[in-house]
Design a protein that fits this description.
17 helices, 409 residues, 5-stranded parallel sheet, alpha/beta, 2 domains, Rossmann fold
């Protein structure tokens, strides 16, 4: 496929092409679900049928006469790919019928609202494998922008000139994000225009319907308020005042925004409820370009740069398959991210312009309290290692964050 940028998830999906289960690729609009599905399918042998439920004729046949649908679109094929499956409200029940009666391999894809609009996916328990696709990771971004640099992303040491080149790409990535169409756009103006289109499509065609709102005003205010709180513990009272939503509505809408791959509520790590904060989450966006178009700010020099790079670290940790938490005590000790691996805790701190291999008092407190064998400080350019008690602490540039993945995998 022309201009196709290989996705990290591609090989993972291919592992299950011979399995019995239906394969579902879900994620936000414009993140490349159809593209990756077609790339995978086109590499296979056998008779293949690609259809989409944005074709009303095909959708009606599926919903009103499933046997005729099977006769036309399933029976004589080895692989059937159904795109935009979220347009069918009864897809789970129908797909179960196909699965139970035919050995054709079924692959489906749906927008970010698929999990919400297809409540009938409960019929497919034990019959479906779901793959969440996000916008480009930083590695995929480098693959699209300057592939020759990709080999340095896992390196222990990179030269100053290579680090400068990687950081220049990172500056663009944290401003405009990783939506494929945005990444491949040449000019800043085009990138902004594409992001505006993604935002409008998301707000007008998906979320407003799901939230059953009569206008965009409150929703836009909510998105802006959340965008300005990235990396911070959410202040429900403040957001309620800015948006007019009640506390219960806020909780409901935040869960929907999370389930549609727009943002994530990162929960606190705690063992002692009396000394550690245990309730309010922090907010991060899956894509920084989407976040920045909400507040219409793409300036390089800005007051929220530290929060932006913290959000970058969050999104990379998510793409590594981890479930990061944060640590914050009532005595104001805090660590940005906590990973749990094989019963051990790994603290990660983000410091934009770190200049020396020195850890914070809070970080040391966490290492001592939880006997963490290792920890990380991430910054723009600083590298180094120190021994803190029985813990190994490594200082890494943001662009080498994948080293953490190798250590925890």
């Amino acid at each position: 496929m022309e201009n196709y940028i290989k996705r990290e998830m591609e090989e993972e999906i291919k592992k299950y092409l011979e399995s019995r289960e239906i394969l579902a690729i879900v994620g936000p609009r414009r993140c490349g679900k159809t593209t990756i599905a077609e790339e995978i399918i086109d590499s296979q042998k056998g008779k293949i049928n690609k259809i989409s439920f944005d074709n009303i004729k095909i959708l009606r046949l599926f919903e009103e006469d499933i046997d005729a649908f099977i006769e036309e679109h399933v029976k004589d094929y080895d692989i059937v790919f159904i795109d935009e499956v979220q347009y069918s409200k009864n897809s789970g029940q129908k797909l179960k019928y196909i699965y139970d009666n035919h050995w054709t391999k079924i692959i489906i894809s749906g927008s970010s609202a698929a999990e919400l609009s297809i409540q009938s996916l409960k019929y497919l328990v034990g019959r479906i494998l779901i793959f969440n696709l996000y916008p480009f990771s930083f590695r995929e971004f480098i693959r699209a922008k300057e592939k020759s640099l990709e080999k340095y992303l896992e390196g222990n040491i990179v030269s100053k000139i290579i680090l400068e080149r990687l950081n220049k790409h990172l500056e663009e990535y944290v401003l405009y994000g990783g939506y494929p169409r945005v990444v491949l756009s040449e000019s800043k103006e085009e990138k902004k225009k594409v992001l505006e289109g993604i935002l409008n499509t998301y707000l007008l065609k998906e979320i407003r319907e799901i939230l059953e709102l009569s206008d965009d005003y409150k929703l836009i205010n909510l998105m802006k308020a959340l965008s300005l709180q990235i990396g911070n513990i959410i202040n429900y009272d403040e957001i309620s005042r800015l948006t007019g939503f009640s506390y219960l509505d806020l909780k409901k809408y935040l869960n929907i925004l999370e389930r549609t791959f727009i943002l994530k509520q990162v929960r606190p790590y705690f063992t002692n409820k009396r000394t550690e904060i245990v309730k309010a989450p922090k907010i991060y966006f899956f894509d920084l370009g989407f976040r920045n178009i909400i507040i219409d700010n793409f300036e390089k020099e800005r007051t929220d740069l530290g929060n932006i790079y913290e959000n970058f670290v969050f999104s990379e940790l998510i793409l590594m398959g981890t479930k990061p938490k944060y640590w914050n005590t009532k005595s104001s000790a805090e660590v940005d991210f906590i990973l749990e691996k094989s019963g051990k805790l790994i603290p990660i701190e983000v410091k934009l312009n770190l200049k020396e291999n020195k850890i914070t008092k809070s970080f040391r407190s966490f290492l001592d309290k939880y006997f963490s064998p290792q920890g990380y400080f991430l910054s723009k350019s600083f590298s180094g290692k120190i021994k803190e008690g029985k813990s190994d602490v490594e200082f890494l540039p943001f662009v080498l964050i994948e080293k953490i993945k190798r250590k925890i995998s």
